[in-house]
């Protein structure tokens, strides 16, 4: 009996997913004679047993395509939304589907949330190998995730383009960059795009310090500034307020919790970048504008670096499966790959370390990091 494997993509889409599907699938078929099936829409499609059988033809022509040919969802394996307010542990059903197809392994392509789901599937006896994809680059245990390089390229180009218009109008322009709770994308694109100020979640910012740096630039003859602001960056005050509310939620009685959670959610949903733009306009007298880069950063064809990363991690995954390895993240380590136990990395967010060389470079160049 030929061996069979399954593949699915979960979480937000990311450039390089199709390159990885192709690499895992083709290597499994060609090098190891395995059968390959893909499940649609992440863990939801696995539970519903919605799948496609891949032959080598159906894996051709997808290397350069953005998004994921399998579709994706943010469904959680042990807390799946039932549409009526209930959340249920659907892992037994998924286990049945895996048994029905006699899958030797399930390959899941995802970010930090997917790593947690992957570990939870291992706990019910499904053999899982995970690949790190996300534009946020926040998966621990790997040097880098695929999707990050492409998104950084798009955000950098946007910052490049904002320079000329900011310069012409003597304005402050804030480019809001994705990245969820981490600052890799804003820091990388901000540095590559020559931003004057870079704001990341790891360094809560002081509005007065930013305003004063802009005024200093203005006095020196540069009456425009570019700010790369991570979507998850908060001012010092907001950060303190969030920490206090979070601590209160932990200890509050059940009847106070909804109110505290609503206040926390209002803080999180506030248009921070727009509010910062208004505050800087008032403090500096310079007009300000906000450009939210949004999902454009996740769309379109992957960069060569992401195609290469997805391809080498994908082909390595097939050989790990052939060797019986599972319960791991197939991670990039320098030029090689490493199978890192999911137990070590699931639920561990990779923040930008404050002594990272990109931070050092930014500081050496006089780029303001908001502190
Ligand atoms: O995780 C990738 C990401 O693009 C984050 O940077 C962003 O915060 C989030 O997904 C947006 O999610 P959605 O596409 O569900 O709005």
What would you note in describing this structure?
By secondary structure, the chain is of the alpha/beta class. It has helices at residues 17-32, 42-47, 91-100, 112-123, 148-169, 184-192, 207-219, 236-251, 257-269, 272-284, 304-322, 342-345, 357-364; strands at 4-9, 35-39, 51-54, 80-81, 87-88, 103-110, 128-132, 172-177, 197-199, 225-230, 288-292, 328-333, 336-341. It is built from 13 helices and 13 strands. The chain has a seven-stranded mixed β-sheet with strand order 3-2-1-6-7-12-13, with helices on both faces. Strands 9-10-8-11 form a four-stranded parallel β-sheet, sandwiched between helices. Helix 7 (207-219) crosses helix 10 (272-284) and helix 8 (236-251) runs antiparallel to helix 9 (257-269). It is globular and about 75 Å long. Bound molecules: 6-O-phosphono-beta-D-fructofuranose. Residues 12, 111, 134-136, 178-180, 231, 298 line the site of 6-O-phosphono-beta-D-fructofuranose (F6P).
Summed up, the domain count is: 2
Number of strands: 13
Q: Which regions are unreliable across 5 or more consecutive residues at pLDDT < 50?
A: none
CATH class of the largest domain: Alpha Beta
Output the number of helix runs: 13
- Mean pLDDT rating: 96
From N to C, what is the helix and strand string?
Answer: EHEHEEEHEHEHEHEHEHHHEHEEHH
Ligand list: 6-O-phosphono-beta-D-fructofuranose
Please name the CATH architecture of the largest domain: 3-Layer(aba) Sandwich
Class from secondary-structure proportions: alpha/beta
Could you give a short account of the major beta sheet? 7 strands, mixed
Percent of residues in β-strands = 15-25%
Q: What gyration radius follows from the Cα positions, in whole Å?
A: 22 Å
Output the CATH topology of the largest domain: Rossmann fold
């Amino acid at each position: 009996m030929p061996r069979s494997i399954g593949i699915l993509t979960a979480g937000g889409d990311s450039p390089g997913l199709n390159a990885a599907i192709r690499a895992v699938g083709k290597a499994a078929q060609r090098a190891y004679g395995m059968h390959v099936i893909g499940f649609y829409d992440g863990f939801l499609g696995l539970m519903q047993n919605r799948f496609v059988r891949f032959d080598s033809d159906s894996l051709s022509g997808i290397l350069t395509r953005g998004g994921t040919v399998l579709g994706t969802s943010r469904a959680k394996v042990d807390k799946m939304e039932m549409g009526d307010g209930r959340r249920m542990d659907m892992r037994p059903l998924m286990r049945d589907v895996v048994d029905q197809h006699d899958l030797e392994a399930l390959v899941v392509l995802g970010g930090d949330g997917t790593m947690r789901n992957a570990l939870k599937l291992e706990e019910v006896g499904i053999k899982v190998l995970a690949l790190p994809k996300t534009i946020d680059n926040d998966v621990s245990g790997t040097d880098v995730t695929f999707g990050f390089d492409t998104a950084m390229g798009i955000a950098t180009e946007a910052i490049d383009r904002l320079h000329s218009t900011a310069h012409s109008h003597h304005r402050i322009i804030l480019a809001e960059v994705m990245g969820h709770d981490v600052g890799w994308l804003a820091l990388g694109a901000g540095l590559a795009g020559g931003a004057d100020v870079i704001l990341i979640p790891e360094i809560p910012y002081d509005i007065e310090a930013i305003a004063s740096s802009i005024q200093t630039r203005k006095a020196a003859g540069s009456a425009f500034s570019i700010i790369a602001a991570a979507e998850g960056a908060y001012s010092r005050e907001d950060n303190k307020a969030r920490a206090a509310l979070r601590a209160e939620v932990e200890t509050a009685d059940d009847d106070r919790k909804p109110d505290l959670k609503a206040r926390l959610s209002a803080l999180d949903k506030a248009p921070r970048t727009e509010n910062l733009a208004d505050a800087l306009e008032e403090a500096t007298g310079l007009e300000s504008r906000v450009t939210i880069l949004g999902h454009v950063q996740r769309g379109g064809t992957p960069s060569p670096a992401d195609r290469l990363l997805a391809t080498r991690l994908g082909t390595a995954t097939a050989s790990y499966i052939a060797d019986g390895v599972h319960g791991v993240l197939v991670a990039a380590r320098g030029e090689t790959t490493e199978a890192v136990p999911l137990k070590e990395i699931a639920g561990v967010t990779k923040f930008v370390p404050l002594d990272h060389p990109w931070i050092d470079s930014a500081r050496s160049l006089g780029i303001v990091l908001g502190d």
